[in-house]
């Protein structure tokens, strides 16, 4: 996370602690559902998933 965006991280963390957004907040519900689907994932599995996603994106975008 770029140093210029620490507030974005804080907002994301607070968001993840909140209740599921209302039915008309489609974007908010999608974010919350994605976060909630990973609830209970171990730290090691989360790190592996992160690295795998980065590698996938590197291949896709040629970085």
From TrEMBL:
Keyword check for Endoplasmic reticulum: yes
Localization, per the record, is: Endoplasmic reticulum; Golgi apparatus
Looking at the Swiss-Prot or TrEMBL record, what is one Pfam family this protein matches?
ACBP
* Signal peptide (UniProt feature, chain positions): 1-24
Q: What are the residue boundaries of the ACB domain, all occurrences included? A: 1-63
Q: Which GO terms describe its molecular function?
A: identical protein binding; long-chain fatty acyl-CoA binding
Name of the molecule in the record? Acyl-CoA-binding protein
Organism of derivation: Anser brachyrhynchus
């Amino acid at each position: 996370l770029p140093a210029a965006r620490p507030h974005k991280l804080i907002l994301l963390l607070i968001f993840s602690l909140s209740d599921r957004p209302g039915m008309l907040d489609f974007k908010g519900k999608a974010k919350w559902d994605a976060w909630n689907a990973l609830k209970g994932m171990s730290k090691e599995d989360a790190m592996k998933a992160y690295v795998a996603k980065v590698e996938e994106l590197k291949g896709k975008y040629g970085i």
